[in-house]
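Annotators were shown the component list below and the corresponding predicted structure, then asked to write short factual statements about the assembly.
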Amino acid sequence: MLSPFPPASRSEAHRGRWLHGVAVAGLIVGWLAASPAVRAGDASAGADVFKSECAECHAVKEGRNKKGPSLFGIVGRQSGSIADYNYSDALKQAQWTWTQDKLHWYLSQPAKTANPGTKMKYDGLTDAKQLDDLLSYLSSVH
Amino acid sequence: MLSHLIRRVTRRARPAHLGWAVAALLMFASTSVQAIPAYARQTGSACADCHAGSYGPQLTPYGMRFKLNGYTDTDGKGFKIPVSGQLTETHTNPATGKSTTDLTEGDLYLAGRLTDQIGGFVKVEADRTGKNTYNTRLSNVDLRFVAKELKLGGKDLTLGVSVNNSPGFQDPIAALPNASFISPIGVTGTFLSQAAPNGPTNRVIGATMYALYDKNWYGEVGTYRSLPTSTQDHLGYNIASDPGTLHDTGYFRFAYMKDMKKQFFSAGVVALTTHRSLPRSGPSDDLTDLGYDLTYQYLGNREHILQLSYVNILEQRKYGADLFGPGGVAAPDRGDVHDQTLTATYTFHQTYSLSVSHLISSGNHDEVRYPPFGDPNATSNIVTLFWAPFGKDDSYTTIANLKLAATWYRITRFNGRNDNIFGAPPGVRPTNAGDLNAFSLSASLAF
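Structure shown to annotators:
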């Protein structure tokens, strides 16, 4: 069988790749430990979740408000902060920051439960993977 | 109206013009109402949010909710001028007769919200009737008052009133003939069909009350009366197609609909009952329409959308007048008419659509009412391929749109036959069902 590596070189290559893997794993673990708010979703799958769950009322284009405000840069944004969108009083008074954790909490239940008085009509997303995927996608929109 | 004009054609026109007439009428049906840019401006939504193909008329579940909410949803940025327009240029190529290319229709829409509880849809339509001549008429009307975000037993409840001029046009599922604008052609038709001869479409005024409970259960009840013939005339309608006087008219609708975001389905029943005097001074016919409809939508991530609908309406008639044909043959005093429509639409990327409809109009044998064979059965197909490049979130414009459509009209049976459908005597060139076929290309611009 043909091989690109002579026997000795193949062994070194295995060792090198193992060390590289350990280093990457360590970095990921460290990063996750340091940033508990980051969720491991698939942003690409999240784009599809967004289209079926959110896109009728929200756009991700900056400055484009529909029935709901633009979600461009939503992760890390202060609630009720888009100047030309007419928020409900309930959301104006919420005064929270849309971290991934906050969004996860908010979107996993009916909007009117999370923020009584809100204009948003959404029953919540109960599928944990879809929610993580969606949050990963929203994190990428900035 | 379709049937009425087809009947006029069958009586008066030369066979070479039949295909043109049918094609023009069917085309009119297929372009009747589309996505309204005024609604997009009002809501900030894209056309594609409410219409799978970005131009309509097929509604997405979101579009249904917008209609149920009385056309009042908004992006909250103040008053928007509730006016839109549409122009349609059409090239028609009938199987027999001359091809034509004309500006066939110009529309003005007054469509949008007045307050948070009052909104509506009014269409004024100018249809080409001859060289540089157009007939302007008041088309669909649907004015609504709605009470939203109510609660009953802890569940969501929406209550509304619709004042409209076509039974079924106001339906949120939009599968019924006056809402889908697809009706079987033929020499007869149910009262709920826009193709019914002397049918009520746009010639009546009525009010219905509706309720949507727990987001899934829809009920509606209402009544209609026909407009005076003088009013029909003023509104642009030929009084020869007057629906007559209507008494004790009841409209009933009940449906279950389920929006699962990626999929949607509905199952509904509809009924319309009336006593109709036609002519107005004549005896009264008892008409009862009983129908059901089933729809399904696969929406997924909106890249591939499939919409299916099936509508089956049976009309039972009890005629008030004795009618005799040649030789003193008495017509039956009762009869049934049956309309069936099956439509499948596939839409790619909310831009390219292929829609196929199979339409059946049938009824009891009646030598007197359905000459020359006594058989009213007709079968036809409509196939439409269209492209609507705008009206998506990422389009050049989300508040105006263009639609280029190619449509094939295929009639396989008329008056119960494929060949010699009008019973031409020997020596006279017969007209076959296929002679009514037509192809058209149309460009519609909505703004």
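Statements collected:
1. Chain A has a mean pLDDT of 81.
2. Helices of chain A lie at 7-34, 43-53, 89-94, 100-107, 111-114, 128-140.
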